[in-house]
């Protein structure tokens, strides 16, 4: 399924403009046919709040962490077939009422100049055993990315959590998490 970028808010374009900065992590990949893969560090963490509560630390039901991404690619006519394995961690917060969190992250394909060619959200459910504080899953999937005239090495796969204004406000005021 292919979705195009339609706007995420004022903060995301700034993050893409900083693509050369050390704020970004990298992937493990030995495939030269692969686009570079990075987890956007400002978007590597998220928080889910108890329903109807203010964005404060005591109201966090779950924290989400994008930990690592591994990519392998194969060239295809006019495209590249990308296999991704994304490690997603959930941690219980003080307001947790269940043992599972649904976390939504995105993968955006960007071209030189931080031009977004494609963006797609992915939701994963992370079950946390009752006797544990945190747990993780590896979300594995495959996508075919049209090259739109670019070489695959000129493209970047950017990953991050889709942030609501409430979460952005939370991290602005409570940087410790």
Write a brief caption for the model:
With 177 residues, the chain is mainly beta.
Commentary on this structure:
The strands form 2 sheets. Strands 1-8-5-6 form a 4-stranded mixed β-sheet, with no helix packed on it. Strands 2-3-4-7 form a 4-stranded antiparallel β-sheet. It has one domain (11-173): Immunoglobulin-like, CATH 2.60.40. β5 (100-111) and β6 form a beta hairpin. 9% of the residues lie in helices and 47% in strands. The chain contains 2 helices and 8 strands; from the N terminus they run αββββββββα. The model is unreliable at 1-30 (pLDDT under 50). It has helices spanning 11-17, 165-173, and strands at residues 36-39, 45-49, 60-76, 79-92, 100-111, 115-127, 134-146, 156-161. The radius of gyration is 17 Å and the shape is elongated. By secondary structure, it is mostly beta strands. The relative contact order is 0.25.
- Percent of residues in beta strands? over 45%
Number of structural domains: 1
Mean pLDDT score, rounded?
Answer: 84
Low-confidence stretches: 1-30
User: What percent of the residues sit in helical stretches (DSSP H or I)?
Assistant: under 10%
The CATH topology corresponds to: Immunoglobulin-like
Compressed to H and E, one letter per element, the order equals HEEEEEEEEH
CATH architecture: Sandwich
**Shape estimate:** elongated
Strand order of the largest sheet: 1-8-5-6
- Count of alpha and pi helical runs: 2
Radius of gyration equals 17 Å
Largest β sheet strand count, sense and barrel closure: 4 strands, mixed
Q: Span from first to last CA?
A: 33 Å
CATH class: Mainly Beta
Structural class: mainly beta
Strand runs, count: 8
